[in-house]
Each structure stands twice: as C-alpha cells, then as structure tokens.
Amino acid sequence: MVRVKRLVLDILKPHQPNAIEFCQVLASVGGDYHVTLTVIEMDEETTTTEVVIEANHIDFDAICAAITSVSGSVHSIDFVEVQNDTQQE
Asked: Which has the least CB within 10 A, 6, 7, 12, 81?
C-alpha cells in the first residue's frame, strides 16, 4: 500500500476560525494527525497559510473536505511525502 505521510499545503482561509481552531479541525480528521500552521499573509478578510500535516496515512480527500467545511480552500500542494509498504518478491 502506498501511503501519504506528509503534506505541505498552501491554504487560503477566512480569519475565523482562528489558527488554533483551524488546526484542531484538520487534526480531528485522523487519530494520529499532527498539524502545524504558519501564517504567510493576512488581508482584510482572509489569511494565507502554509499547513503541514504529518501522519501514518493521510486521507487527502478527508482533509480537503475538512478545509472546505470551515470555508478554506487549497491553493496548492507544495510538498508531498509518500511511502510504499508493498513487499516486492
């Protein structure tokens, strides 16, 4: 199985929810999700962020759904790390 282990996403989000609440929403998607957020830029209504998600197996579709549920949007996938656990014989 090929698993996504780490993602770095450029995300545009409204000021609310705040950074802590936003990270909590993303971390709640998976039991072992570790989420960090860096604010890149702020304007009157939105915040541009870099979000790093690390886990044993990241469900990208579920992450995107969680981001959308709090009115955020993924602008780009800036980094991805995957691992192939399939045994070659």
From this structure: 81
pLDDT at 89: 59
Instruction: Pick the closest to residue 70 from 15, 33, 10 (CA basis).
Output: 15
Q: Domain with 67 in it: what CATH number?
A: 3.30.70.1340
Tell me the pLDDT tens digit for each residue of 51-83: 999 999 999 999 999 999 999 999 999 999 999
Q: Whole-angstrom Cα distance, residue 54 to residue 23?
A: 12
Instruction: Give me the domain span that covers residue 79.
Output: 2-83
Contacts of 53 (CB under 8 A, 6+ apart): 6, 7, 9, 26, 33, 34, 35, 63
Segment 15-28, tens digit of pLDDT: 999 999 999 999 99
Distances (CA, A) of 31 to 7, 28, 50: 16, 7, 21
